[in-house]
Amino acid sequence: xxxxxxxxxxxxxxxxxxxxxxxxxxxxxxxxxxxxxxxxxxxxxxxxxxxxxxxxxxxxxxxxxxxxxxxxxxxxxxxxxxxxxxxxxxxxxxxxxxxxxxxxxxxxxxxxxxxxxxxxxxxx
Length: 124
What we know:
By secondary structure, the protein is an all-alpha fold. It has helices at about 5-15, 20-40, 45-65, 75-95, 95-124. The protein contains five helices and no strands. Helix 2 (about 20-40) runs antiparallel to helix 3 (about 45-65) and helix 4 (about 75-95) runs antiparallel to helix 5 (about 95-124). The longest helix is centred in the last third of the chain and has 27 residues, at about 95-124. The protein is globular. The model has no long low-confidence stretch (mean pLDDT about 90).
């Protein structure tokens, strides 16, 4: 079965991305899923909200599972990712947009920090 051009491009982009770029894509994905969930909550579509919050939760778990604990800072990142993950779970259980917004804010901060790290590493 043939894939559409957008799928082919997306697959190619993922396969050729550096680990840093893949991390950025995960942050962007989590942000996108939270935004979709917020709109779904606003529209009363609880199933769509649930599905997209779970996707964001899965990304936070991926970050936790792939931390390299030979670096001390990994413990700090694990605490932050775990907190965001727990808030996403709570937002999902309660279908609470305020809690989801809080988690989204932290994800955006982490993404923006990651983009700055990438920029600084690239400029060296």
